[in-house]
Every structure is written in structure tokens, then in C-alpha cells.
């Protein structure tokens, strides 16, 4: 095995060891805690019975089986993923366009600056009640909330990306007779691309954070946010754990996909190795 | 250079003023135009309950800052078209003794607590992972798993363990901040130009000295950038957690209080929400400006 291959193998082994240890420790803790942890919990206004603070693997497996066989999990994933994707596409289209505009023309930037600053520090969740009033309890508010969140992050990324183009490159291209349009298309955009992608990746993570709360408005099955909210209301810890784990897995999957695309798309940047 | 700065602030002000004037005109449009003549789709939007007039927002602001009901004013109030009375939202907040400055102070306190506890924790983990290949191999997969969990999703589970109190609102903030600063700290340490490290090593620096004199200063721009990013995340998480379950803070003000289960069922007054959003944005901006000044001061050597 080559040294690089061996190093990679060591990493995989260590990762598996770490995750395996956590999984085993959790299993042991759950088994020990099964009889010792309180099952009756005071929740501020009333007692709740039959709480499994650390659900053993058995309950988790049963719950997963139920959620999968009833089709709840699959349809929830489909609906929530759909919302995240639509909101993400909408928001990133608007955000990247505006970011490119503010990055390109100083005047546009100065005009947009106060608003960008304002939205940057507005937690998107704070917009939720306002969106409910404006766009009603429905699909629109959720998607637009995600889109707003995504737009702000990608706007900043696209802006930074355009601005990070070294002056020398622009001057060199201009000296060779390239028009502004050509410079923008052939020099600025490719240089801005990694930054735009990085911001889109952050925005995708934020979109998933937003959906957990956004789906509390007009809460209906199937959706992951409401599944979690229902589990919280009972409270049913195995469902909660599976809900959180599902969202976590989706975030991870999307992030991995984005990272993969990022590596592919910015392949031209690598000059070593 | 000076003229650029002037043009910048001038255009910024123009943009703000234009928006303000346009908004005031649009939100008061029903006063000049008979809403019956407008197409239905426009008329339903041009209502003070949907787009609160600027003066209603200003009023909500003064009422929320002052706190406490102004009985004489609200009782003898005459309903004029296009004019919103002191809304249920404001009244509900007054009954709970909620004021804007107090809510803002509470939320800011939670944000600062999250930063004070979460940032050192996250930076330590990031430094450890960036410093030692072995620690990175073992910890990174666990970190990736944890990072994928939205902090707000944890609130109820934490509440089961810790009871209904302050802890389950603060822990998500701490967690969000820590998870955010790990990555800049990690990359800050790992991506220190290897020439610096090799040079320092060949001069005999190792361990603590290398960390203190070479790695940490070299990583500090990344650390500060991470902190500024974490600040925004901390505000988002704090307000979100407060919207979901807290009897105080800006999130509570935005949703108008009430039981946690029915939090988002109540129709809120958009004027109050706008006041709340502007207040949160202003506080976030002020904190970020402070962080930026600190960054410049501590990383002066970079230029």
C-alpha cells in the first residue's frame, strides 16, 4: 500500500473507532439508565409519564420500523427536502444575482449597503411572524423564509467573491483589450466561483436549521419539523431522536454533495499534487 | 478617497430615505385612495394589518420602550381608517410587563453568555484538532455528526433532562457558537504557512512556545473572523430559542408571549414585529461593529 493510501486507511480506522466507541458507550448508558433514570418528569405545567431519557437501541429500532413502514418518515423527508430545495434555489438565485451586482458596480453597492447590513443581522426566524401575516399560514411563508435566509448569505458570498478578484488580473485583461463584459464573464466570475460556492454551502446548512422552526407554522404532517414538534409535545424521545438524526443525516448528505460538487467545479484551481 | 466615502454615505442615506418615504406612502395609501376602487389583490395587501403605517411602527416603538398601559389614551381612542389602535399584541406584552429595552438586554445577555462559554470551548476543540493529526482523526467524524444537528431541534430534549429553566435556552446557543468557531480555529492552525513553523522549529521552538508565539498569532485573523460569524449565529439561535420557549427576551416579544405549545398560532401585530426586527438588527450590528474594532486592534500586525 502506498504511504498516502496507508495514511488514509489510518484515518478511516480511527474515524470508525471513534464513532464505534460513541455508539457502544451510548448503548451501555441506555441499558444502565433504563431502570435508573426517571420516567415521570415534571415539565413546568404537568407531569409526563413514560419518558425514555436515553432510549435503548431496541426502542429506537421499533420506532424507526414504525415510522418507515407507515411511510411517515419517507413522506416527511420528501416534503421537507422539497421546501428546503425550492427555498434554497430561489434564495441563492436572488442572492447571487444581487451579490454580483453589488460586487460589480460600486454605486449599486452603496445603495444596497444599508439594507444588506440590516438583513445580515436580522435573524431569519424573527421574520417568521411577519411572513405569516404577509404570506399567510402556508407553503409560501416557509419557502420564502428559507429563501430570505439563503439570499443574505449568498449575497455576501458573491459580493466578496467578485471583490476578491486581484486588481492585476482585471488590469491585465483590460490591457489585452477585453471588454468589461468579457472581463466579468471570463475573469471575475471564475474567480468568484469558489467563494459563491462556499457561501451556498453555509446557506444550505442554514436552510435546514430554518425549516425546523418554519414548519411549525401551519404545522401539518408530513414534514420533519412537525414530526419533531409532535415528538416534543408528547414528549416521545425515540421519535425525537429519530427526527433529529434524520435532519442531521440530511444536512450531512447535502453538505457532502455540495462539497463533492465544489471539488469537481473548482478542479481547475488545484495546481499541486 | 474622501469623495468616495462621501458618495458612499450619501447614496446609503438616499437609499434609506427613499425606502422610508416610499414605505410611508404605500402604507398610508388607503388614506388617499378609496380602497374600493383598487383591484382586490392590491386592496387586501394595502391594509394596516398587513403593512403597518410608519406612524404605527413609531407608536409601537414608543409604547414598547415606555412599557405599561397608557389607559387614558387607549380607552378614549377613536378608530380612524388607516390608523391602528394600540394592538392586542402590544397590550398582551404590557400585561406581561415586557418592554423593548428589557427584552433586548435579556437576549443580548444570552448571546454574550453563548459567546463567552461557547467560543473558548469551540476554539479549544478546533485548536486541538488542528494541532494534532491524531486528535483530528478521532474527533472530526464526531464533530461532523454533531454539527449536522440543528441547535434549535435540541431544546425539548434538553428540557427533559434539565427541567424548564434557563439551561435549555442557553445550551443551544453555546452549542451553536462552539460548533461555528471550531472550523475557523481548525483551519487557522492547520493552514499556518509551513515556512513559519519550520523556521520556528529549526530555531528550537516547540510545544507551548511554538503555539503561543507562532501558531496562535498566525491563526488569530481566522479566529476573529470565526467569532464575528458566531456572533450572527448566536443571535439567530437565541431569538429562535426564545420564540420557541422563553417567557422573556426578543423572541418572546416577537411572538407576543403565550404558552410554548401555541406559540406560532397567534396572529401578531406586524408593527411590533418590525420594531423587534429592527431592534435585533441594530443590536447585532452594534455588537459586530465592536467585534470588528477589536479584530482590527488585535490583528494589527497583519497589515
Task: Write a concise synopsis of the structure shown.
With 273 residues, chain A is mainly α. Chain A has helices at 3-36, 57-69, 72-104, 106-120, 124-135, 139-163, 167-175, 180-214, 224-233, 237-265; strands spanning 41-42, 47-48. By secondary structure, chain B is mostly helical.
Salient structural properties:
heterodimer, A: 273 residues, mainly alpha, MetI-like fold, 2 domains, 2 strands, B: 303 residues, 14 helices, 74% helix
Describe this structure in words.
The complex is a heterodimer of chains A (273) and B (303). Chain A is mainly alpha-helical and 273 residues long. Chain A has 2 domains: 1-54; 71-269, Orthogonal Bundle (MetI-like fold), CATH 1.10.3720.10. In chain A, 79% of the residues lie in helices and 1% in strands. Chain A has 10 helices and 2 strands. Chain A has helices spanning 3-36, 57-69, 72-104, 106-120, 124-135, 139-163, 167-175, 180-214, 224-233, 237-265, and strands at residues 41-42, 47-48. In chain A, strands 1-2 form a two-stranded antiparallel sheet. In chain A, a hairpin with a 4-residue loop joins β1 (41-42) and β2 (47-48). Chain A is globular and about 80 Å long. Chain B has 2 domains: 1-47, no CATH class; 100-302, Orthogonal Bundle (MetI-like fold). Chain B is built from 14 helices and no strands. Chain B has helices at residues 2-27, 29-32, 40-45, 54-66, 71-75, 88-95, 100-131, 133-147, 155-162, 167-190, 194-202, 207-244, 250-255, 270-298. In chain B, α7 packs parallel to α10 (167-190) and α7 (100-131) runs antiparallel to α12 (207-244). Chain B is globular.
